[in-house]
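Batch job 17 of 40 flagged for manual review because the log was empty.
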Amino acid sequence: MQAEPEQVQHYTTTFSVDRSPQEAFEAITNVRGWWSEGVEGVTDQVGGEFVHSFKDVHRCTVRVTELVPGRKVAWRVLDNYFNFIQDQAEWKNTEVVFEISEEDGGAEVHFTHVGLVPQYECYDVCANAWGGYISGSLRSLINTGKGQPNPKDDGNVPAHQQAATVARAERNGA
């Protein structure tokens, strides 16, 4: 008798909005509107690549791998750097997937960072930050047309990024 394969727990979160699946899709591909105003590159074409960075804390290069209007957005993380972990390979070659479905006249967005698992050193900090960006900033962008992305300059940092900063400090024993 074979042992059951261990269930892998990738980071995931789901939320509902009072907008159409197409409006949700358009907001997701507007990465500057909910993640960071400083994103450089192409975020709305398959094969497009963009770079996200936050101060000296986080930098990643992402390729858009799938776009199905009103249904799905998928990315592959090509390169990544965090200043608060030892293993810099943690996000490399992971997949970020947004699945959109119609629900009660609105839409449901199901987000999964495939490969971001609780065993990773960055998991708590990353889960906290993704929660703010996805369930907070992206949801707000879809519902109201205004997200809370990281500003292009180092000005007013969104609350979810402040919370991630606190989590990093606690993790590092500060």
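Reviewer: the log was empty due to a logging misconfiguration, but the result itself is present. The chain has one domain: 11-171. Unflagging and moving on to job 18.
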